[in-house]
Design brief:
This protein is an alpha+beta fold. It contains three helices and twelve strands; from the N terminus they run βββββββαββββαβα. Strand 4 and strand 5 form a beta hairpin. The longest helix is centred in the C-terminal third of the chain and has 16 residues. 21% of the residues are buried. This is Nudix hydrolase domain-containing protein.
Amino acid sequence: MKNSPFKAHVDKVQPMEQGKWIQTRKIDYTDPDGKSRVWEMAVRTTRTETTGLDAVSILGLLQKPGSKGKHVVLTKQFRPPVGKVVVELPAGLIDPNESVATTAERELLEETGYHGKVTKESIPLYSDPGLTNANMALATVDIDMADPRNTDPQPQLEDGEYIEVFTLPMAGLYDGLLAVCEKEGTTVDARLFHLAEGLRLADALQ
């Protein structure tokens, strides 16, 4: 293929501005036609060498007593860059020497109060590769509601964290998210909405 994207390559990366959590960089690269080009990107400064990942996103699943299907554990928190409250999956940065599973279970407990067990980990994922190399893994976590610790979950939030926890049924997640947005004026993290749309399409194709 003449213009195959696999022919492009990065030539040089240079730092631009440095912040506490983020650094901006300039990328000199060669496109598939051999032309030199420039790109700007943002980089997290917290990535650990243990996993080569920045963060973990958590798909926490539980089954409420008397319910036929699984529910998804979700959070609402104000995101300054958006200027709105965003509905998201729980997530957090990976600490040094932590595994994906350890981070997922720790962050789930801290943000939601639920104790869970990781059952699956994804490959490394990039949510906005046109802007940043920030990456994450998606960890699926089973939350056993028979565990006494999950009877009255108490989040362990850090100073400056203001998170509201709620659940929605997996069945009808798409409509549930839209209803929350319409009622409360929130918006939805793209990754969560993609999950909901995938579930909706899968149901429609059955």
